[in-house]
Amino acid sequence: MIYVDPNILERVNRWLTPTFDTETQQTIKEMIAYDPEGLEDSFYKNLEFGTGGMRGIMGVGDNRINKFTLGKNTQGISNYLKKQFPNQPIKVTIAYDCRHNSKSLARLVADVFSANGIQVFLFSELRPTPELSFAVKYLQCQCGIVLTASHNPPEYNGYKVYWEDGGQLVPPQDGEIIAEINALKYSDIQFEANSALITLIDTEVDEAFAEASVKNGSFDTPQQMKDNLKIVFTPLHGTSITMIPKVLEMAGYKNVSVVAAQATPDGDFPTVTSPNPEEPEALRMAIELADETAADIVIGTDPDCDRLGIAVRDTNGKMTILNGNQAMVIKTYFLLEQWQKASKLNGKQFVASTIVSTPMVSKIAGNFGVHYKEGLTGFKWIAKMVKDFPELEFIGGGEESFGYMVGDFVRDKDAVTATLLACEIAAQKKASGSSLFRYLQEIYSRVGFHKEHLVSLVKKGKKGAEEISEIMKQLRSNPYDQIAGKKVLKIEDYQTGVAKNILGGTSEIMDIPKSNVLIYYTEDGSKIAARPSGTEPKIKFYISVHTSKNDEKALQQKIDAILLHLNIS
Questions:
Q1: Half-sphere exposure for 302 (CA within 13 Å, toward CB)
Q2: Looking at 42, 78, 102, 150, which residue is catalytic?
Q3: Staple partner for 535: which of 50, 304, 452, 482, CB 3.0–4.6 Å?
Q4: 144, 221: one domain
Q5: What are the start-end ranges of the H helices in 139-202?
Q6: What are the two backbone dihedrals, phi and then psi, of residue 344, each rounded to the nearest 5 degrees?
Q7: Could you tell me which residues come within 8 angstroms of residue 560 by beta carbon, excluding any fewer than 6 positions away?
Q8: How far apart, in whole angstroms, are the C-alpha atoms of residue 416 and residue 418?
Q9: Is 497 helix (H, G, I), strand (E, B) or coil?
Q10: Is residue 277 domain-shared with residue 366, that is, in the same domain?
Q11: pLDDT tens across 467-506, in order?
Q12: 115 and 143 share a domain?
């Protein structure tokens, strides 16, 4: 006889009631008989909102993406919207990406909103996530939803929630909505659509978003410079094919080659192991095309078009991939140079990044006399800063995981405008006899030589979640006093909100929201952060080192020593 945990069995039995359709019930019965391990993983917990919304494997159960979990979320948000905006018309925008079931799930979400008397603007076809953020403000909606799982494997889908400013949910609002959702039963979901309240949208919003992207991402690059830049672009089977070629053409970039085998949206992502531009393999076909066409720059975006990977030619003419920190440094420095040339810097501007990203952004901001703001991992925190500091003008911000936001017309990472910005920089640098790669070296020489490294340990399922929890527990209960032979000077625990000065034996409270992140600082200036992912079954280790001179070997030796000491790779 197969043993099933009683608590899980209780959850399972709720799904074997008439509230759920016969197909769902039959699938569960088959799992009870033939897949008890899968059954346990499908029901042992509820899917939760993380740093990028809610993502999960599609299937039946409380821990899966399906019509009932998304329906319950949508019902809860509907109830919350009515409480927050009483006695006024409520409008919601919905978009979706290329993943399996995204279109049908987006329609289901629209149905539930409309059944609750809420006006819905539903994109007629797949669109980039940043366009959804833009559309929320453009259409003066109180809320926006995008069905996406970013760069997760094909079996995943997800649900990101945006508020009336175009930014993602942040505390305490996310907690209030979760409480509203948790108070519901699945039988409370109103699935019967009011079709009169659902309006399909496309061209008008597309044109407005494209024009705004060109306006924010262009910096007086002469047409001849644009004509001389050879670009290779790949959407990695995702949504960016609907917008990036259009924006580049509108901005005057005609020399664009698209990777044909990756141009068609496809939720199976057949040509890549992972549709994640953070992974070098994802840009392999684009780099091959760049070598065939003697291109200057490669751009690759993830499936929902909020992250972008960039490859450029090094001093030997070989294509090399910039990591997220390097790309962020280049864009931030260039933006500040442009603002300085235009005499627009007056001490009332700011740039932003995150606690696990390179310290270089802070140093660059200081060099230009611009404020620097730092938040937790996740672009929702950078978008929130625009609201939190209304007395300051937002120039741009990014994070190490390949996201960047130019200006505040979009309140999320935006690979469309960031792609145009990267091409503007590349075109100008090529025309001056330099390149993006050489420009990065110049920035290092001015700010300091830094190198970052990321290790992601994948730990799937319930067992993996327990392993990740144990790793973080050990790092807190048995903290390192030295790492790779260098004394630990400071430990920041964002879960407790306490920063400990190890040598001085003092502590201070950090004025920042709680998060499961631990950061070590050593005497040689190295920074090591540990953080479980909020949207993927991973624990991530972020390492940052620096030297006073250009010594790539010394930088890598520092990283290798830290990896060896932590026993990770």
A1: 25
A2: 150
A3: 50
A4: no
A5: 173-182
A6: -100, -5
A7: none
A8: 6
A9: coil
A10: yes
A11: 999 999 999 999 999 999 999 999 999 999 999 999 889 9
A12: yes
- Per the structure block, which two tokens stand in for 136? 């929320």
DSSP 8-class letter at 437: H
d(Cα 252, Cα 240) in Å, to the nearest integer?
18
The answer on 188 and 149 residing in a single domain is yes
- Positive or negative torsion for Cα 124, 130, 135, 140: positive
- Say yes or no: 281 and 142 in one domain: no
Boundary residue ending a domain (163, 183, 201): 201
Strand 393-399 to strand 349-354: parallel, antiparallel, or no bridges (unpaired)?
parallel
H or E segment and range at residue 169? none
Q: Which amino acid is at 140?
A: Q
Torsion of CA 450, 363, 361, 561, to 10 degrees: 20
> What pairs with residue 300 in β-bridges?
234, 309
Question: End of a domain among 447, 479, 495?
Answer: 447
Give the pLDDT confidence score for residue 50 in this predicted structure. 63
Listed in sequence order, the residues at least 6 apart from 542 whose beta carbon sits closer than 8 Å to its beta carbon are 356, 400, 452, 453, 454, 527, 528, 529, 531
Dump the DSSP string for 25-87.
HHHHHHHHHH-HHHHHHHHSS----BTTBEEEEBSSSTTSBSHHHHHHHHHHHHHHHHHHSTT
Q: Which CATH number does the domain housing residue 562 bear? A: 3.30.310
Q: Are residues 257 and 272 in the same domain?
A: yes
State both tokens at 6.
């009683």
150 noted as active-site residue: yes
* Residue tagged 């909100």 (tokens): 497
In whole angstroms, give the CA distance from residue 298 to residue 422.
Answer: 10
pLDDT tens-place string over residues 150-209? 988 999 999 999 999 999 999 889 889 989 999 999 999 999 999 999 999 999 999 999
Q: What is the CATH number of the domain that holds 260?
A: 3.40.120.10
pLDDT band at 518 (very low <50, low <70, confident <90, very high): very high
DSSP 3-state of 516 = coil
Measured CA to CA, the distance from residue 525 to residue 232 in angstroms comes to 38
Single-letter amino acid, residue 377: T
pLDDT tens per residue, range 279-332: 999 999 999 999 999 999 999 999 999 999 999 999 999 999 999 999 999 999
Distance, C-alpha 505 to centroid of its chain: 37
Domain that holds residue 464: 450-566
Q: What is the pLDDT of residue 481?
A: 94
CB-based contact 268:334 (threshold 8 Å): no
Respond yes or no on whether the N-terminal peptide bond of residue 532 is cis (omega within 30° of 0).
no
Rounded distance, CA 307 to CA 303, Å? Answer: 9
Q: Are residues 304 and 413 in the same domain?
A: yes
Q: How many other CB atoms are found less than 10 A from the CB of residue 22?
A: 8
Q: How many domains does the chain have?
A: 4
Written as six digits, the tokens of 484 are 């790779």
Distance in angstroms (rounded) separating the CA atoms of residues 65 and 76: 16
Is residue 367 located within the same domain as residue 252? Answer: yes
CA distances from 373 to 180, 289, 301 (A): 32, 39, 26
